[in-house]
Amino acid sequence: MKLTAKQKELVAAAAAARQRAYAPYSHFAVGAALRLSDGSIVTGVNVENVSYGLTICAERNAIGAAVLAGFGPGDVVEIAVAAQAEKHVSPCGACRQVLAELSLAEAPVLMHRLPDGDTDISKLSDLLPKSFDSSSLPKKR
Fold first, then answer.
1. Using one digit for the tens of pLDDT, what is the confidence trace for 1-57?
2. Does residue 139 fall inside a structural domain?
3. Is there a domain that residue 83 lies in?
4. Does a structural domain hold residue 141?
5. Which residue numbers are catalytic?
6. Measured in Å, how far apart are the chain's first and last C-alpha atoms?
7. DSSP state string for 50-74
8. Does some domain include residue 64?
9. Relative to the CA of 93, which of 15, 61, 121, 133 has its CA 20 to 30 Å away?
10. Which residues are bridge partners to 114 per DSSP?
11. What phi and psi values does residue 73 have, to the nearest 5 degrees?
12. Angle between helices 93-102 and 58-68 (to 10 degrees)
């Protein structure tokens, strides 16, 4: 798929971040990059733990960076994930839910495969249809 210059920039940021991943157990390094509503980019990497359930995915790490930078719901406009794998790596279910909290539903998710550089693109709403959101909760009294 042909990427725009901005998409290439986002994918490159995810691929560069991936180099800083901490993955001593799975050896599966992942980098994520988010383009925010002001055009800036924040990145994240997976951080593994010997207690696997405590591992932090790259996408959730990047969301934390976005929140720390002062961004909130609807401010993530584009997402890139980079990993070396035989197939395109998409965000896990937990990451999809967390991304849905702060991203536009139609945000493109660029799934970049290394080393060949092929990128698949889906909308976040296609990866997480009928997502659980604040409208699912009871109304405040």
1. 699 999 999 999 999 999 999 999 999 999 999 999 999 999 999 999 999 999 999
2. no
3. yes
4. no
5. 59
6. 49
7. SSGGG-B-HHHHHHHHHHHTT--TT
8. yes
9. 15
10. 84
11. -55, 130
12. 20
